[in-house]
Amino acid sequence: GAVVSQHPSRVICKSGTSVKIECRSLDFQATTMFWYRQFPKQSLMLMATSNEGSKATYEQGVEKDKFLINHASLTLSTLTVTSAHPEDSSFYICSASRIGGSYEQYFGPGTRLTVT
Amino acid sequence: GQNIDQPTEMTATEGAIVQINCTYQTSGFNGLFWYQQHAGEAPTFLSYNVLDGLEEKGRFSSFLSRSKGYSYLLLKELQMKDSASYLCAPKDSNYQLIWGAGTKLIIKP
């Protein structure tokens, strides 16, 4: 159990367009979902933490108007990269913690975004 | 501040044993996770320690000493597929995982 999916796995978009990434917990309800970004050979960087039905908490330096997070249900969170630029090209990974769990984070497979 | 210290890279031989050390400083402590991350993929859970001592899970074991701010991951009977990065991630007082850059493990035949 504890499977997290992400869609799409890869996306290429043009500069100035917006891209939506979905994160779903398939077989459990997630109290909290996390969005990370990872550049090549670097550590995971937490972008934001979201709880179902409430506004996401963004980490310092992450623009909330550029990276829109919606956590509409206990199994779905979305990240929308608005007005994407080439420097937004990265590996975006979501994770989810289950209700009543040990705060372990179950990771989705990631989404590789390339902005041209 | 919060800090994770792991070796950047380690090399080991197939069939051997390797120990990856991790020292941490966090504001509060609520357990420590080890994750494995293959290149281009998301991390996968390996182990979780909340009390001092050794947790064994097949070929992988993880040790924790809270007083020393120290943990290690022990990998036995190394296989080529174990080539990956290994991430030590303690939880702070807010139950937030703190991530370091991880240790890249290279397995040679």
What does this structure look like?
The complex is a heterodimer of chains A (116) and B (109). Chain A has 116 residues and is an all-beta fold. Helices cover 0% and strands 53% of the residues of chain A. Chain A has no helices and eleven strands. Chain A has strands spanning 4-7, 10-13, 19-25, 30-38, 45-51, 57-58, 67-73, 76-81, 90-98, 106-107, 111-115. In chain A, the strands form two sheets. In chain A, strands 2, 4, 5, 6, 9, 10 and 11 form a seven-stranded mixed sheet that branches. Chain A has a four-stranded antiparallel sheet with strand order 1-3-8-7, with no helix packed on it. Chain A is globular. With 109 residues, chain B is mainly beta. Chain B has a five-stranded antiparallel sheet with strand order 1-3-8-7-6, with no helix packed on it. In chain B, strands 2-10-9-4-5 form a five-stranded mixed sheet, with no helix packed on it. In chain B, a hairpin with a 4-residue loop joins strand 7 and strand 8 (70-75). Chain B is globular and about 40 Å long. The model of chain B has no long low-confidence stretch (mean pLDDT 94). Chain A binds chain B through residues 42-46, 49, 91, 93, 95, 102-110, 112, and chain B through 30-31, 33, 35, 40-45, 48, 50, 87, 91, 95-97, 99-102.
Low-pLDDT runs of 5+ residues of chain A are none
Tell me the structural class of chain B.
Answer: mainly beta
Largest sheet of chain A: 7 strands, mixed
How much helicity do the residues of chain A have?
Answer: under 10%
Q: What's the β-strand tally of chain B?
A: 10
H and E string of chain A: EEEEEEEEEEE
User: What class do helices, strands and sheet pairing of chain A give?
Assistant: mainly beta
Strand adjacency order, main sheet of chain B = 1-3-8-7-6
H and E string of chain B: EEEEEEEEEE
Number of contiguous helices of chain B: 0
Overall spatial form of chain A:
globular
Per DSSP, the total helix count of chain A is 0
Spatial gap, N to C terminus of chain B: 40 Å
Q: Compute the separation of the termini of chain A in Å.
A: 37 Å
Q: What would the average pLDDT of chain A be, to the nearest integer?
A: 91
Number of strands of chain A: 11
Radius of gyration of chain A: 13 Å
Task: Summarize the largest interface: chains and residue counts.
Answer: A-B, 19 and 21 residues
Query: What's the oligomerization state?
Result: heterodimer
Poorly predicted spans of chain B:
none
Q: Approximately how much beta-strand content do the residues of chain B carry? A: over 45%
